[in-house]
Design goal:
Layout lengths: L2 E7 L3 H11 L5 E8 L6 H14 L7 E3 L13 H4 L21 H11 L5 E5 L4 H9 L7 E7 L15 H5 L1 H8 L5 E4 L1 H4 L3 E2 L1 H8 L4 H21 L4 E2 L3 H8 L4 E6 L1 E3 L10 E3 L11 E7 L1 H12 L3
Parallel strand pairs: 1-2, 1-4, 2-3, 4-5, 5-6, 6-12
Antiparallel strand pairs: 7-8, 9-12, 10-11
Helix pairs in contact: 1-2, 1-11, 4-5, 5-7, 9-10
Calcium ion (CA) binds next to loops.
Length: 312
Protein backbone atom coordinates (compact mmCIF):
# COMPACT_ATOMS: atom_id res chain seq x y z
CA UNK A 1 0.00 0.00 0.00
CA UNK A 2 1.25 3.49 -0.83
CA UNK A 3 2.45 5.61 2.06
CA UNK A 4 0.13 8.62 2.52
CA UNK A 5 1.90 11.97 2.67
CA UNK A 6 1.14 15.68 2.91
CA UNK A 7 3.77 17.91 1.31
CA UNK A 8 4.13 21.29 3.04
CA UNK A 9 6.05 23.56 0.71
CA UNK A 10 7.18 27.00 -0.56
CA UNK A 11 8.05 26.36 -4.24
CA UNK A 12 10.94 27.12 -5.10
CA UNK A 13 12.48 25.12 -7.97
CA UNK A 14 13.80 22.40 -5.67
CA UNK A 15 10.42 22.12 -3.94
CA UNK A 16 8.88 21.77 -7.39
CA UNK A 17 11.21 18.88 -8.26
CA UNK A 18 10.32 17.22 -4.95
CA UNK A 19 6.60 17.48 -5.76
CA UNK A 20 7.24 16.00 -9.23
CA UNK A 21 9.23 13.13 -7.71
CA UNK A 22 6.36 12.32 -5.33
CA UNK A 23 3.71 12.53 -8.05
CA UNK A 24 5.84 10.30 -10.28
CA UNK A 25 5.84 7.57 -7.60
CA UNK A 26 2.18 6.61 -7.05
CA UNK A 27 2.97 2.98 -6.20
CA UNK A 28 4.89 4.07 -3.13
CA UNK A 29 3.40 7.48 -2.29
CA UNK A 30 -0.10 8.88 -2.21
CA UNK A 31 -0.03 12.68 -2.03
CA UNK A 32 -3.11 13.40 0.09
CA UNK A 33 -2.64 17.14 -0.25
CA UNK A 34 -0.15 19.93 -0.72
CA UNK A 35 -0.09 22.73 1.85
CA UNK A 36 1.66 25.96 0.92
CA UNK A 37 3.52 28.37 3.15
CA UNK A 38 5.34 31.67 2.70
CA UNK A 39 9.08 31.14 2.36
CA UNK A 40 11.19 31.35 -0.77
CA UNK A 41 8.60 33.81 -2.10
CA UNK A 42 5.33 35.15 -0.61
CA UNK A 43 2.32 32.87 -0.14
CA UNK A 44 0.40 34.06 -3.22
CA UNK A 45 3.29 32.86 -5.38
CA UNK A 46 4.04 29.60 -3.54
CA UNK A 47 0.37 28.59 -3.70
CA UNK A 48 0.20 29.40 -7.42
CA UNK A 49 3.52 27.63 -8.06
CA UNK A 50 2.41 24.42 -6.33
CA UNK A 51 -0.62 24.27 -8.62
CA UNK A 52 1.51 24.94 -11.71
CA UNK A 53 3.66 21.97 -10.74
CA UNK A 54 0.65 19.69 -10.22
CA UNK A 55 -0.63 20.64 -13.65
CA UNK A 56 2.81 20.08 -15.16
CA UNK A 57 2.64 16.54 -13.75
CA UNK A 58 -0.90 16.09 -15.12
CA UNK A 59 -2.26 15.91 -11.57
CA UNK A 60 -4.79 18.75 -11.28
CA UNK A 61 -6.72 16.43 -8.95
CA UNK A 62 -4.28 16.92 -6.04
CA UNK A 63 -5.82 19.31 -3.48
CA UNK A 64 -3.63 22.36 -2.86
CA UNK A 65 -4.18 24.60 0.17
CA UNK A 66 -2.83 28.04 1.05
CA UNK A 67 -1.54 28.35 4.60
CA UNK A 68 0.32 30.89 6.71
CA UNK A 69 1.57 34.03 4.98
CA UNK A 70 4.13 34.96 7.66
CA UNK A 71 6.21 33.29 10.38
CA UNK A 72 4.75 32.91 13.88
CA UNK A 73 6.51 35.89 15.44
CA UNK A 74 8.74 37.50 12.84
CA UNK A 75 8.66 39.33 9.55
CA UNK A 76 8.93 37.09 6.50
CA UNK A 77 12.36 36.68 4.92
CA UNK A 78 12.29 35.50 1.29
CA UNK A 79 14.91 34.13 -1.13
CA UNK A 80 14.32 35.72 -4.51
CA UNK A 81 18.11 36.08 -4.78
CA UNK A 82 18.23 32.30 -5.17
CA UNK A 83 14.92 31.36 -6.80
CA UNK A 84 14.12 34.49 -8.84
CA UNK A 85 11.17 36.86 -8.64
CA UNK A 86 8.51 34.17 -9.16
CA UNK A 87 10.20 31.43 -7.13
CA UNK A 88 10.16 29.27 -10.24
CA UNK A 89 12.31 31.40 -12.56
CA UNK A 90 14.07 29.55 -15.35
CA UNK A 91 11.08 28.63 -17.44
CA UNK A 92 7.60 30.09 -17.74
CA UNK A 93 4.70 27.78 -16.90
CA UNK A 94 1.06 28.65 -17.64
CA UNK A 95 -1.03 30.19 -14.88
CA UNK A 96 -2.82 27.37 -13.08
CA UNK A 97 -6.39 26.54 -14.07
CA UNK A 98 -6.99 24.33 -11.04
CA UNK A 99 -8.37 26.20 -8.02
CA UNK A 100 -6.92 26.51 -4.56
CA UNK A 101 -9.01 24.63 -2.01
CA UNK A 102 -11.25 26.80 0.17
CA UNK A 103 -9.91 25.51 3.50
CA UNK A 104 -6.85 27.00 5.15
CA UNK A 105 -3.84 24.65 5.04
CA UNK A 106 -3.69 24.51 8.85
CA UNK A 107 -7.33 23.36 9.08
CA UNK A 108 -6.70 20.77 6.36
CA UNK A 109 -3.76 19.41 8.36
CA UNK A 110 -5.81 19.25 11.56
CA UNK A 111 -8.92 17.76 9.95
CA UNK A 112 -6.94 15.16 7.99
CA UNK A 113 -4.88 14.04 10.96
CA UNK A 114 -8.01 13.75 13.11
CA UNK A 115 -9.99 11.93 10.45
CA UNK A 116 -7.44 9.40 9.18
CA UNK A 117 -6.21 6.50 11.32
CA UNK A 118 -3.49 7.49 13.77
CA UNK A 119 -0.05 6.80 12.33
CA UNK A 120 -1.23 6.77 8.72
CA UNK A 121 -0.12 10.24 7.57
CA UNK A 122 3.50 11.33 7.07
CA UNK A 123 4.29 15.06 6.84
CA UNK A 124 6.94 16.27 4.41
CA UNK A 125 7.84 19.91 5.13
CA UNK A 126 10.05 21.52 2.50
CA UNK A 127 9.91 25.12 3.72
CA UNK A 128 9.59 27.12 6.94
CA UNK A 129 7.64 25.11 9.53
CA UNK A 130 4.93 27.73 10.16
CA UNK A 131 1.93 25.68 8.96
CA UNK A 132 2.91 22.56 10.89
CA UNK A 133 3.67 24.45 14.11
CA UNK A 134 0.43 26.44 13.86
CA UNK A 135 -1.52 23.21 13.46
CA UNK A 136 0.25 21.65 16.48
CA UNK A 137 -0.48 24.76 18.55
CA UNK A 138 -4.12 24.93 17.56
CA UNK A 139 -4.75 21.19 17.92
CA UNK A 140 -2.21 19.62 20.31
CA UNK A 141 -3.95 16.24 19.93
CA UNK A 142 -2.77 15.80 16.32
CA UNK A 143 0.98 15.50 16.96
CA UNK A 144 0.51 12.02 18.41
CA UNK A 145 -1.35 10.97 15.25
CA UNK A 146 1.45 11.85 12.78
CA UNK A 147 3.36 8.80 11.54
CA UNK A 148 6.60 10.70 10.95
CA UNK A 149 7.87 14.08 9.80
CA UNK A 150 10.56 13.97 7.12
CA UNK A 151 11.79 17.50 6.51
CA UNK A 152 14.44 19.53 4.73
CA UNK A 153 16.07 22.01 7.04
CA UNK A 154 19.03 22.82 9.22
CA UNK A 155 22.72 22.06 9.04
CA UNK A 156 25.50 21.02 11.36
CA UNK A 157 28.84 20.63 9.59
CA UNK A 158 27.74 22.99 6.80
CA UNK A 159 26.49 25.45 9.44
CA UNK A 160 24.40 27.92 7.40
CA UNK A 161 23.35 29.27 4.02
CA UNK A 162 21.12 32.29 4.73
CA UNK A 163 23.38 33.40 7.62
CA UNK A 164 26.76 32.02 8.71
CA UNK A 165 24.89 30.01 11.38
CA UNK A 166 21.52 29.02 9.95
CA UNK A 167 19.83 27.25 7.08
CA UNK A 168 16.99 29.15 5.35
CA UNK A 169 13.91 27.07 6.31
CA UNK A 170 14.76 27.05 10.01
CA UNK A 171 16.02 30.65 10.03
CA UNK A 172 12.79 32.05 8.57
CA UNK A 173 10.64 30.67 11.41
CA UNK A 174 12.79 29.39 14.29
CA UNK A 175 9.89 29.47 16.77
CA UNK A 176 7.92 27.16 14.49
CA UNK A 177 10.91 24.86 14.10
CA UNK A 178 11.32 24.79 17.87
CA UNK A 179 7.71 23.62 18.27
CA UNK A 180 8.16 20.88 15.67
CA UNK A 181 11.49 19.65 17.05
CA UNK A 182 9.95 19.48 20.54
CA UNK A 183 6.69 17.87 19.36
CA UNK A 184 7.67 14.28 20.09
CA UNK A 185 6.82 13.24 16.52
CA UNK A 186 9.51 10.98 15.00
CA UNK A 187 11.65 13.31 12.85
CA UNK A 188 13.96 12.66 9.93
CA UNK A 189 16.00 15.71 8.95
CA UNK A 190 17.72 16.38 5.63
CA UNK A 191 20.17 19.19 6.46
CA UNK A 192 22.59 21.06 4.21
CA UNK A 193 25.19 18.43 5.20
CA UNK A 194 23.27 16.07 2.91
CA UNK A 195 21.92 18.41 0.25
CA UNK A 196 25.28 20.03 -0.44
CA UNK A 197 26.43 16.55 -1.50
CA UNK A 198 23.58 16.32 -4.04
CA UNK A 199 24.79 18.80 -6.65
CA UNK A 200 23.20 19.12 -10.06
CA UNK A 201 26.33 18.85 -12.17
CA UNK A 202 26.31 19.41 -15.97
CA UNK A 203 25.92 15.67 -16.77
CA UNK A 204 23.00 15.44 -14.32
CA UNK A 205 21.24 18.43 -15.93
CA UNK A 206 21.91 16.82 -19.32
CA UNK A 207 20.25 13.62 -18.07
CA UNK A 208 17.09 15.58 -17.18
CA UNK A 209 17.08 17.30 -20.56
CA UNK A 210 17.83 13.95 -22.23
CA UNK A 211 14.55 12.49 -20.98
CA UNK A 212 13.05 14.02 -24.10
CA UNK A 213 9.91 15.11 -22.25
CA UNK A 214 8.43 18.47 -21.32
CA UNK A 215 8.98 17.70 -17.62
CA UNK A 216 12.63 16.84 -18.32
CA UNK A 217 13.17 20.14 -20.15
CA UNK A 218 11.48 22.15 -17.40
CA UNK A 219 13.52 20.52 -14.63
CA UNK A 220 16.73 21.08 -16.63
CA UNK A 221 15.83 24.78 -17.08
CA UNK A 222 15.00 25.25 -13.39
CA UNK A 223 18.16 23.62 -12.13
CA UNK A 224 20.22 25.51 -14.70
CA UNK A 225 18.64 28.77 -13.47
CA UNK A 226 19.30 28.41 -9.78
CA UNK A 227 22.75 26.91 -10.07
CA UNK A 228 24.17 30.35 -10.94
CA UNK A 229 23.73 31.36 -7.29
CA UNK A 230 25.54 28.40 -5.72
CA UNK A 231 28.23 28.20 -8.35
CA UNK A 232 29.09 31.85 -7.71
CA UNK A 233 28.88 31.47 -3.92
CA UNK A 234 30.58 28.12 -3.31
CA UNK A 235 32.56 27.66 -6.52
CA UNK A 236 30.79 24.30 -6.75
CA UNK A 237 30.00 22.36 -9.89
CA UNK A 238 26.27 22.97 -9.62
CA UNK A 239 23.40 23.72 -7.26
CA UNK A 240 22.27 21.49 -4.41
CA UNK A 241 18.87 19.93 -5.01
CA UNK A 242 17.68 20.25 -1.42
CA UNK A 243 14.02 19.33 -1.14
CA UNK A 244 13.79 16.18 -3.33
CA UNK A 245 16.01 14.42 -0.78
CA UNK A 246 12.94 14.25 1.50
CA UNK A 247 10.91 12.34 -1.08
CA UNK A 248 13.90 10.22 -2.10
CA UNK A 249 14.23 9.14 1.54
CA UNK A 250 10.64 7.86 1.51
CA UNK A 251 11.34 5.92 -1.68
CA UNK A 252 14.84 4.62 -0.91
CA UNK A 253 15.92 5.25 2.69
CA UNK A 254 19.10 3.27 2.08
CA UNK A 255 20.46 6.20 0.04
CA UNK A 256 21.02 8.10 3.29
CA UNK A 257 23.07 7.73 6.45
CA UNK A 258 22.63 9.64 9.66
CA UNK A 259 22.44 9.54 13.45
CA UNK A 260 19.56 9.53 15.90
CA UNK A 261 20.53 12.50 18.07
CA UNK A 262 19.31 15.52 19.97
CA UNK A 263 18.69 18.62 17.85
CA UNK A 264 17.66 21.94 19.41
CA UNK A 265 16.73 25.18 17.66
CA UNK A 266 18.28 28.52 18.61
CA UNK A 267 15.51 31.11 18.96
CA UNK A 268 17.12 33.72 21.22
CA UNK A 269 20.44 34.89 19.82
CA UNK A 270 20.27 37.43 16.97
CA UNK A 271 23.68 36.17 15.84
CA UNK A 272 22.77 32.49 15.56
CA UNK A 273 18.98 32.66 15.11
CA UNK A 274 17.66 29.46 13.55
CA UNK A 275 20.82 27.43 14.14
CA UNK A 276 20.18 23.69 14.47
CA UNK A 277 22.32 22.72 17.44
CA UNK A 278 22.86 19.05 16.65
CA UNK A 279 24.52 16.85 19.26
CA UNK A 280 26.26 14.79 16.56
CA UNK A 281 29.03 13.69 18.92
CA UNK A 282 26.75 12.84 21.84
CA UNK A 283 28.34 15.29 24.25
CA UNK A 284 25.14 16.09 26.14
CA UNK A 285 22.57 13.90 27.86
CA UNK A 286 19.71 15.63 26.05
CA UNK A 287 17.35 13.00 24.64
CA UNK A 288 17.47 12.13 20.95
CA UNK A 289 14.56 13.69 19.04
CA UNK A 290 15.61 13.41 15.37
CA UNK A 291 17.37 11.24 12.86
CA UNK A 292 19.75 13.82 11.45
CA UNK A 293 21.20 12.73 8.13
CA UNK A 294 24.83 13.30 7.24
CA UNK A 295 25.48 11.47 4.01
CA UNK A 296 23.82 10.60 0.71
CA UNK A 297 24.60 8.29 -2.18
CA UNK A 298 24.40 11.16 -4.69
CA UNK A 299 24.66 8.98 -7.80
CA UNK A 300 21.90 6.72 -6.49
CA UNK A 301 19.77 9.75 -5.68
CA UNK A 302 20.11 11.26 -9.17
CA UNK A 303 19.52 7.87 -10.80
CA UNK A 304 16.26 7.51 -8.85
CA UNK A 305 15.20 11.09 -9.57
CA UNK A 306 15.92 10.91 -13.28
CA UNK A 307 14.21 7.55 -13.68
CA UNK A 308 11.09 8.74 -11.86
CA UNK A 309 10.88 12.07 -13.70
CA UNK A 310 11.04 10.01 -16.89
CA UNK A 311 7.67 8.50 -15.95
CA UNK A 312 5.89 11.87 -16.11
C1 LIG B 1 15.93 25.39 1.54
O1 LIG B 1 15.60 26.76 1.39
C2 LIG B 1 14.93 26.97 0.18
O2 LIG B 1 15.51 28.02 -0.51
C3 LIG B 1 14.95 25.67 -0.58
O3 LIG B 1 13.73 25.49 -1.27
C4 LIG B 1 15.16 24.63 0.49
O4 LIG B 1 13.93 24.20 1.02
C5 LIG B 1 17.43 25.24 1.47
O5 LIG B 1 18.05 25.99 2.47
CA1 LIG C 1 11.79 24.73 0.01
Amino acid sequence: MARRIIIDTDPGQDDAVAILLALASPDELEVVGITCVAGNVPLALTSANARKVCELAGRADVPVFAGCDAPLERALVTAEHVHGKTGLDGVELPDPAMPLQDAHAVDFLIDTLRREPAGSITLCPLGPLTNIATAFRKAPDIAGRVAEIVLMGGAYFEVGNITPAAEFNIYVDPEAADIVFKSGVPLVVMPLDVTHKALVTAPRVAAFAGLGSHVGEVVASWTHFFERFDVAKYGSEGAPLHDPTVIAYLLQPGLFEGRHINVEIETQSPLTRGMTVADWWGVTDRPANATFMGDIDADGFFALLTERLGRL
